[in-house]
Amino acid sequence: MQVLVRDNNVDQALRVLKKKMQREGLFREMKERRAYEKPSERRVREKAQAISRHRKAARKKMQREGLIAAPKRAVAAR
Q: Distance of CA 18 to CAs 1, 2, 23, 59, 69, Å?
């Protein structure tokens, strides 16, 4: 991963780096690797994540097809 520093603006480069790392899932992976995870716990977690992904994809598909209503957007108070 590479980030260019322009005009000695290190703060902006750090923000860009953090955003890239967040998108890649590096922070989540580092958090998971802090402690040992038993193989059985890992299987349970991965299966739960797969179920969650599947449900989310099914929900989005149904929203696109108009079978269920899309979530209402919050309107900013004036």
A: 11, 11, 9, 30, 35
pLDDT confidence of 74, banded at 50, 70, 90? confident
Task: Report CA dihedral (11, 13, 14, 19) to the nearest 10 degrees.
Answer: 130
H or E, element range at 48? helix 39-65
- Give the residue-averaged pLDDT of 21-49: 93
Residue boundaries of the structural domains of the chain: 1-34, 41-65
Q: What mean pLDDT is predicted for residues 23-44?
A: 93
Residue recorded with tokens 């590096």: 26
